[in-house]
Structure formats: C-alpha cells, structure tokens
Here is the input.
Amino acid sequence: MATRIQTYDTTLRDGSQGEGVNFSLQDKLLIARKLDELGFDYIEGGYPLSNPKDEEFFQRAADTDWKHAKVAAFGMTRRRGIGAEADTGMCALRDSRAPVITVVGKTWDLHVNEVLRVDEEENLAMIRDSVAFLVAEGREVIYDAEHCFDGLRANQEFALKTLKAAEEAGASLVCMCDTNGGRLPEEIAEAVDLLRETLSIPVGIHCHNDSDLAVANSLAALDGGAVQVQGTINGIGERCGNVCLLSVVANLLLKKEDYDALQPGSLEHLAELSRYVYEIANMNFRNNQPFVGISAFAHKGGMHVHAINRIAESYEHIKPELVGNERRVLVSELSGRSNIVAKATKYKIEHDGELMTKILERVQDLESVGYQFEAAEASFDLLIKKVAGTYEPKFKRIHHRVNVESAADTPAETEATVKLTVNDEVVHVVGDGDGPVNALDAALRKALLPIYPALAEMHLVDYKVRVINSAEGTAARVRVVIESRDEDDVWSTVGVSENIIEASWLALVDSVEYKLFKDEGAVAG
Here is the structure.
C-alpha cells in the first residue's frame, strides 16, 4: 500500500514573509479554496494575534465548508513566566476556531540562552504547557521544532528533551524545521532516523531553501520516514524561500514508488496552481521553475528539437502534460530547421523545405536588428502567416501620432491619433490615455470595436522595454514586448525600433491582430 504523505501548505503565513509578497484577506481565502480543491491536507492561515486580517481569516475559515483540508493557526509557545491560560498568544490561538494549531518552539540552546534568555527548564515548560493547553481545548496540535537540526548538532541531549516535551504534552506530530536552510540531505536523513527512534509520534519536515537544497532535503526526510512535508506554492518565503511543494509532490508521485499525496487527478493542475498563486500575489512567473514554469519544457537548440520531434523523452524527464504544462519550441537565430518545422506543424500551416528556409531566414534577419520571438510567440505566428502567404490583414495602418503635453506641477496629458482602413473605409479617431501606449491602445480600440466587438475582452497585462544596442545612447534601438490576455488565453508580441513609441505600436498592432485571427480559429490556441 502506498504511503500517504501529508501536504501542509504555509503559503499564507510563511510564504507571505517573502520580500514583495502581500496577501489581502480575499487573496488568502481564494488561495485556500484552491488548495482545498486539489487535496492539500493542511492550510496554515497565519498567526491570529499578528494582525486583524489574519484574525478575520480564521473566523471566515471556520464558517467555510472545506472539502478536504484542515485549517491550521500558527503561533509561538507561551511567554516566559506566564501561564498558558493567561497568555494572549495562546488565547488568540484558542479563539481562532481553527481545528489545528501549529506551535513553534525553540530547539537550539543558543536561542534559548541568547535570544529568549530563559533557562532550559523554563523553555521545556513553555513547550509542555502550550501544547497541553491547546490539546485540552480539543485541538490537534502540531509542534514545529524551530532550528531543529542546528539544535541537534549543538546539543543533542537538550534538543531531544524539547521534542519529548511536545510529545508528552499531546502533540500529534513533531515537525523538524531546517529554519536556516543550511543542512545537507544526508544530515536530514540522519536526524529523521534519530527522531523516529526517540519519539513514538510521527515526524514531519519543514525546509528553507538557503542552500538550494530544500526539495532534496524534504525528499530525504520523506524517504527516511517523515509523513508530513511543510512548504509553500512556488517556494515563496523569507530570504531564499521555502521548499516548493509543487516540486516535492511532482517528484514523489512521478519519480518515486509507493507514495500518495493530494487528491486523485490533482497532479495535472500543478502548473495551473502555480500561476494562480503568482497572479493572486501579483508576482512575475519564474519561467525556469521546474515542472511548472513556462520554460520547463521549452526547447531552443535545433539539435534538441530535432530529437524531441522523434522521441520526446530524449530531452524531457517527464511528459509536460502530467503536471499541466506544455512543450514549447522556441525560435531564434540559434534555431535549426527542426524548430521551424515543429512550430509550423503546431500552427497547422502547410510547409515544405523551401518555405522552412524562408521562415528561418526571415527570423534570422529580424533577430539581427533586435527582434526575439522566444517570448513573443504571437508575433511569430503572424510572421509564419506572412511568409507563407496566408496573411490577410484585418485593418491597414495609414498613420498614427502621439502628443504629450505637460506643464509644471500638472500631470502630463497624452493623446493619440490613429488613421486606419477597415473594410475599405478610412477611420480616423483620437484616444486619450495615461501614457503613449495606453492612448494608442484606446484609439485603436475605438477604431476597431464597432467592427470587432470581441476586442472588448482583450486587456494588456504587461509591458516590457529593453535597450538593445546601449552603446548608441539615446539613439539606441529598443525592443518592446507586450503581454495581452482575454477570457481564454495569454499571448505576447514584440516590436523593435529606435523610437520607443513606434516599437510599442508595432507590438500593439500584432497583439490586436493575433486576437482577431485567434477568434477566427486561424492561429494555434
């Protein structure tokens, strides 16, 4: 029978301690519901005494019908010299209504003596009293042993006493925390063996990623007999982050035998979950993130693409669809004919050797002046159609103009004028915006919406500018990449020019045209 691994997510608490990460109450509730749908066993919501938002989260969570997960509140042991029943932190944990309470306490004598500045007996009493108080309140208590591995190495006898104190007081599990993120897999495995010999309750693992070993360390602990893994989605967290639960689960279920985690069918939603959390947290995707990043199964070298066209596993360790990802073939001046063949096949365009050569030559010509299509597949789609002779523009550009006026102490006013031919009629419109690109977008939409109302669904979600030949100073060429989305898809387009407005206009026009072709089914979805 497969060993069931408990997945304990602390994105909403430990993850929120990462630089630049901030969740609203609604964000936390949305993420929690998504985690519950996929079968995560525990969702740690925060520390109810730390702020009103976390306090409100637990009250809302207590009134929610969770399908699978148990919500956990997090807090520290009671303060020194105060009974647990009188400690404000303990009372806040009790009043959170959370069915599970995770209590963190000191394992390392350095922290006991120099940070808390209490004697060792008082530290043991703080652990014992805190756990016992919450167990008496009918809660499942998980004990997080902070700096567990440092404590075991510095003073094993005392460290084990702290863990035994939690066990004797009624904790259901002791979680070993590599708080500094500095341990190696063999050290983790050795410590898990020691705790399994010492304790009669199960052990878990909570790793930080300061040595870039959090996934390896977590797997070593689970292989050694730990039954719970604590971590965050995408590995967000303080300093270098926490272990990424997505990578742990993918490795467990796809690379190892006899392990079970999450709900059946959840594995194929890992990429979706990753992007969902990034979006909610308003963070940029990490393209090269293992398993779920958009570059995880992206192939650029012609030799690689030639190989995967024959045997996909020759350059892929798993099938990308197993984790909800997809294979991508990148096109650049380094690409060979195989990349072009793969892309043209995907886009359902008839091709032959001569056409492939023309497409590759066009790509190389454009890249020589600063274009890149690796992150602008929508522009590449249009390029294929143009070279193949299947491109029929939805509108024709006549001219555009942008005017920016500003005076001292007043915001700049931006106005764009666009003149197009649409359905053999000349359309001349003016649009206002917060800046040149926003104004051009407004004018273009005003011109096209009467004929193409579906453009109302399209939104610009990202705008990136990069100087290409910086040695030219203010006359340098710039590359603009615009990311757009509608209700179904996200796509990116590129424009290059010495003039940033012109580069932006080229990328914007491609984005609109791609949307119109896509809605007709004339490009790959």
